[in-house]
Amino acid sequence: MDLLIHDLKVPLAVIEAGLMGIMNRQEKYGPITERQEKVFMRALRNTKVLKALVNDALELGKSREGVVNASRFKLSHLIEQALEELFDLTDSSAFEEIRRCTGLAQFRRVLESKGVFLSVDEDLWCGEIYQDHAKLKQILRNLLSNALKYRKSTVELNIERTEDSIIFSVKDDGEGIPSAFHKKIFECYFQMDPEDRSSCSVRGHGLGLAGVMVLVEDLGGQLELDSDEGAGTRFVVRLPLKDEIQG
Length: 247
Ligand SMILES: Nc1ncnc2c1ncn2[C@@H]1O[C@H](COP(=O)(O)OP(=O)(O)OP(=O)(O)O)[C@@H](O)[C@H]1O
Ligand SMILES: [Mg+2]
Prior knowledge:
- By secondary structure, the protein is of the alpha+beta class.
- The chain folds into 2 domains: 1-67; 69-240, Histidine kinase-like ATPase, C-terminal domain (Heat Shock Protein 90), CATH 3.30.565.
- The protein has helices at residues 2-7, 9-24, 26-29, 34-64, 75-90, 92-100, 104-113, 122-126, 133-150, 208-218, and strands at 70-74, 116-120, 128-132, 155-161, 165-172, 222-227, 233-240.
- Helix 5 crosses helix 9 and helix 9 (133-150) runs antiparallel to helix 10 (208-218).
- The longest helix is centred in the first third of the chain and has 31 residues, at 34-64.
- Magnesium ion (MG) binds at residues 142, 145-146, 204, 208.
């Protein structure tokens, strides 16, 4: 199965490169109309969604096999990338604004204009941590994507660190999740509302949280859910920070 998923990568990359080429190199391929550009943009957005799904599925497969690739990286890079990837699929102007950001203050301002409030200590933000970057990004991207999808208006991302662990809290002010569903939502394909209220053109599958749970467990961490009907939702991820010497 993983091999099959892996083989989707090359054709996907070819489709993506082709679409980008037609749009960005009109002097070579000829001019395109505004209506054509819209179609190309939609196709491109969908290849990106597919690429993210393929990468997520591969990362999950690796995780189940016990493969952890820890590396040293800046927390700011992780968060910027996770949010860039998210907005790349839903809000291209936000994506561009985030990409142009330099520094925490500016990053915070851009996010605030999108209703996302980031709270993190400057030292932690600029400092390095040692963890599995790809898995952590997948965890955050999925929790943030849900929060953005189900919020009324705001999302709060709070990051703290203790001596040997890092804690991410993702909170939204949406409808919340009744306690009767607190176990179920981590099952594959379960959705409280399969009709999907998201404005995103690509519908969810009820797989995000199941994957998050697997990744958090495989990294030796804990996932906590704090939510009730009408009371918004908060997911808290606690991960041990790896010891670089032992790997
Ligand atoms: N922040 C949230 N607020 C309210 N409901 C939520 C929230 N996060 C998840 N849920 C509920 O849990 C279900 C499962 O979430 P999950 O992320 O696994 O799937 P999805 O977002 O529907 O689709 P996918 O993640 O595969 O694109 C959602 O369909 C939704 O009903
Ligand atoms: Mg989801």
